[in-house]
Amino acid sequence: MTNWLLGAFAFVGNRTVSGLQGMGRAWGLFLGATASIRNVDVWLPHLLPQMARVGVASVPIALFIATFTGIVMSLQASYTLTGAIPVYFVGTLVGKTMILELGPVLTALTLAGRVGANISAELGTMRVTEQVDALETLAYDPLAYLVVPRVFAAVFMFPIVVLLAIGIGIASGWFTALQLLDMSSPEFVKGLRLFFEPWDVWFAVIKSVSFGAVVTGVGCYFGLQTERGAEGVGRSATRTVVVASMLILCLDAFWATVLL
Amino acid sequence: MSIYLTEVHKAFGPKEVLKGFSMSIEDGETAAIVGPSGIGKSVLLKHVVGLLRPDAGSVVVDGVSVPELDRKGLDRLRRRIGYVFQFAALFDSMSIAENVGMGLRRIPGWDRRRIEDRVEDCLALVELAGMGDRYPAELSGGQRKRAGLARAIAPEPKFLLYDEPTTGLDPVTTSAIDRLILRMRDELGVTGLVVTHDMTSAFRVADRIALLHDGRARFSGTPAEVKAASDPVLKGFVEGDPDLYYRDGRRREGMHAGGQDHGA
């Protein structure tokens, strides 16, 4: 019994210590990357290529998911509201949920897998094959070269991808309402405009910026912490997706509490 | 200016890798640090270029104390040091020419034309002329090592650090790499530090050889002195005799238990 209790205490203690160490390292990475922003000549040439990789290349998967989300939202709204509430509220529900929640969060969760895991695997491979050390020996600041352009690219591009996803999600919901729910365009648009606030779009943009920073920051952190070859690279990619997804949902709740 | 390592200590968690390693490498000299795999040779090399900081002791390169340098100071020092990695550590998303030009882009005042010319010269020096457009994955192990060497020498460093430059290579390629190391010393006047477990290579390239054993320099001398030495651990390593090499290690452990210190 005593051994079991000691073991449990040791387990909790070890987990706490390693968790605090991880937070300390993450804070160190944040401070280091912030200080590296001044090395503009190192990160600026990589910003546009990273914006293409992080943002432009993510558009197809984001739009694919938004399209089907819009269809499902429209059908489910119609199913839920039937007989009780005027049908034009389908437009309200599709618009509000796509702008406030599903557009930013589903896109960010998708990009946590696509972008976060990609960054983690790339930087992890560079770490275990000593390419990060090679950068240092060639007098490059690895944080300025690897981390800053990726995070900035995501901060700039995530809102654009999210806004596109919101637009496509609403359009597909609208199309579904016209084709499958016997609604007219004026009805859908009436619902869409009913509770629309321009602030909602800003809310989505602010969330997207923070999601972009989290996805790429977590990817860079776990990538640069990678040890022990291919297995370590795989582990880093998995951790990135899990931790980034959790942080996205926590941030989502945070912004809803603070901004709404 | 030279490289001075004095009483360097380094531990990773409970594992003490370096326990007071001391060695000096004089200007224009090529020294080799030998020892079996996993003994801490690469760790030692990383201290010289500031990738690792010692827990205790001093590392002085070109008159500056490496552990005390800030980021800018380290960058300035690193422009004077070329580092040849064990597995080349080429950037696999870049062509060989781009790899070789990486360090040159950090030198103020170098324009594109000058960088391209220097890259061509370096590739020719390591016998990879015309292969600049290829990617690391398209090269053999020996070619990758030579490309790594070209990248290291491109900024015309005063010091070259070689981490296991001949490991995993066939004898002919090993010999070619050794010749390149000698050319760096003889034609460019570069001060070299080679870590290796390849004694044939060490005898060929080094003016002085030190054996890293139990975290310290157990022996340091010219190749002739190494060959003539009677130290059983050194002889065991040089001759590849595990009985001789490990027998002394076991005896040392027993003596430590009895309170006697046989540190090198």
Number of helices of chain A: 9
What general outline of chain B do the C-alpha atoms trace? globular
Going by CATH, the homologous superfamily of chain B would be P-loop containing nucleotide triphosphate hydrolases
Quick one: biggest sheet of chain A? none
The stretches of 5 or more residues of chain B where confidence is low (pLDDT under 50) are 253-264
Q: Which two chains form the greatest contact, residue counts included?
A: A-B, 12 and 25 residues
Largest β sheet strand count, sense and barrel closure of chain B:
6 strands, mixed
Query: How many structurally independent domains of chain B?
Result: 1
Mean pLDDT of chain B: 83
Helix/strand structural class of chain A: mainly alpha
The arrangement of helices and strands of chain A along the chain is HHHHHHHHH
Could you say what the CATH architecture of chain B is?
3-Layer(aba) Sandwich
Radius of gyration of chain A: 22 Å
Distance, first to last CA of chain A: 50 Å
**Low-pLDDT segments of chain A:** none
Order of helices and strands of chain B: EEEHEEHEHHHEHEHEEHHH
